[in-house]
């Protein structure tokens, strides 16, 4: 597998754009193309633009037609189809911008797509509040003291133990139908999570929090 991919999809546009020089391949879905254009992103750096192009308006987009990959399968989302293309090109590490915001069913759909690919790709979402991604059974992250940490079961996780959090878990269980682990925060520089079975969507806040709270 090759190196890292930058992928823009059609949720809320990022407040600031990442450095494209940090990536080996850059792509977007057709809906995201419009906010990249408005934000002044260097569109010539895009390696491909995928989708059904139902929002294509012609004119200035036509100059990028050589980058278009038409994906008409209505049983899959544009995000899903973009990840398939990325896999076909030999990449497995993807940073996703524009995955949240907008219509919330799209956001939930994006998480479900990431879950479907989690054993084949390392997918990390970024928005203005946090980074979030599925984590393995034995996971450690450094440099997070005083940052918000949320553990979201997808849909459940068993025998989970955490270290470095204000509200730790010891051989606990989480489930979306009973107990979830959102709005915790790190009291140590390093946070670790171990669990026996299930899946965990891990959120870490971008900024340190002054008055930690949980709900």
Which key features would you list for this structure?
alpha/beta; Jelly Rolls; Rossmann fold
Q: Number of DSSP strands?
A: 13
**What separation lies between the terminal Cα atoms?**
41 Å
Please report the number of helical segments: 3
* Full CATH superfamily name of the largest domain: Thiamin pyrophosphokinase, catalytic domain
Task: Report low-confidence residues grouped into runs of 5 or more.
Answer: none
Overall number of domains:
2
CATH class of the largest domain, named Alpha Beta
The proportion of residues in beta strands is 35-45%
Structural class: alpha/beta
Query: What is the CATH topology of the largest domain?
Result: Rossmann fold
Mean pLDDT across residues: 91
